[in-house]
Amino acid sequence: MLKYRSLLGLSNARVATQVSRCRPRNISRASSSQISGGLATHLTRASASAAALRPRSLEDAPQELPEVSPDDLPIISTGDNKVAIGWDTRTWSRFHNIWLRDHCRCPKCFHAITKQRLVDTFEIPHDIIPVRVEPKVEGLEVSWPSTDPHVSVYPWSWLQRNSYDPVIHKPDAAKEKILWGAKIEQSPPAVTYEEMMAGDDKGLFKSLTNIASVLPPTPESTEKLVQRIGFIRETQYGRFWDFTSDLAKGDMAYTTLALGAHTDTTYYTDPCGLQVFHLLSHTDGSGGASLLVDGFYAASILKELHPESYELLSRVHVPAHAAGEPSAIYRPYPPSGYPVLGHNPVTGELAQVRWNNDDRSVMNHLDPQLVEQWYNAIRAWNQCITSPDSEFWIQLQPGTTVVIDNHRVLHGRSAFDGKRRMCGAYVGVDEYRSKLAVLTEKFAPDAVLRATNELPMAVVNGRNIWNSAL
Ligand SMILES: [Fe+2]
Ligand SMILES: [Zn+2]
């Protein structure tokens, strides 16, 4: 009986003890411009000092607001074009009237089954003003002027989650990324194959956050496992690969050569999301150990030791190509490619690592002032991903399937001789994230779902209309 392992974005307490020292620092989610701006107000309930309505810096904002209690509803005030909600004496969220009207989720404005907008946004007067605004137990109730009366109710938890003035940062423990290095070897994340395939989806959820399993060493079982996650993404390497080192495809993966830590398909505009691979057999030879490196961990080290290199790798675009097959030339669009370290443009968080030095194309767009600095930066990056502290080496055995997040985890292998048969597949990143979101909704609902799941008309066709993804 052998093991199946996966190394996605780990969020499991078992590995947390080993990697907690690598926790990323909090990155503020709002720029000062997002939280600036005042609001002329008059109070409709209770009283609050004018000072409470002044914009506040994010540093002052609480990291987490308490749930709204029926005995202590928020204070509401309205101004010319906004509604302000006082969560406590210090924290206010402001919502523009037009924003509120556009986000109504009543059955006339939002299709409860398809979860698509029905309201005609362009019919909303740009200067719409509510007729009445009232705090109710279930949420903020807003009556709008129209020929037939229109009342919107916005759950409190949903308003807190979607507050944009200011952004209220509520840390989501389930989504916290735990960085890992070589010490993960002591206790790699794992679930059993039976758990993963069980109909209740619990094992699948565990597997997408933290995996390992027992798997018969056959391509058929591996393919079933991949399909359990989502649609297989077909590429120039096929749909489901089953290959040896015969150079059947014009790529170094199909040789016996050592491969340094890299992510796959850097030459795509959207690189594959998950990579699943399974060593089916290795006969008449040795070597071929697998290498896994947490790119987010390596990036955190780079940022610490060489912040200027981190900045450069976050900024300079790197072109790439796959051209080993006469029938195809793959390049990303735009052809100048993407930075090695991709960030979420809204939150500033590291979102994607793209790195395969072998597939890099001509760097003909480099600022001449930056050429030497850029080479120094990739040298520093290479040191981070090849440091023994980062490298997790594992000698796979038939029956051990590896699942990695190709936007985060780099992989490689040592050279080998003999005959090695591998199989595996890619899953698109949206496919994988969709599955994870569905399972999170089911097994780890966030504060908005917990607060609204019991509201009348909230859950339609198995999905809550207040789901934070909508
Ligand atoms: Fe690869
Ligand atoms: Zn409506």
Automatic annotation (TrEMBL):
Pathway entry: Amine and polyamine biosynthesis; carnitine biosynthesis
GO molecular function: iron ion binding; trimethyllysine dioxygenase activity
Segments forming domain Gamma-butyrobetaine hydroxylase-like N-terminal: 78-159
Keyword annotations from UniProtKB, A to Z: Carnitine biosynthesis, Dioxygenase, Iron, Metal-binding, Oxidoreductase
Domain of life, per lineage: Eukaryota
One Gene Ontology cellular component: mitochondrion
GO process terms (BP): carnitine biosynthetic process
Enzyme Commission identifier(s): 1.14.11.8
Keyword Repeat: no
Enzyme class at the top of the EC tree: oxidoreductase
Protein name from the UniProt record: trimethyllysine dioxygenase
Natural source organism: Tricholomella constricta
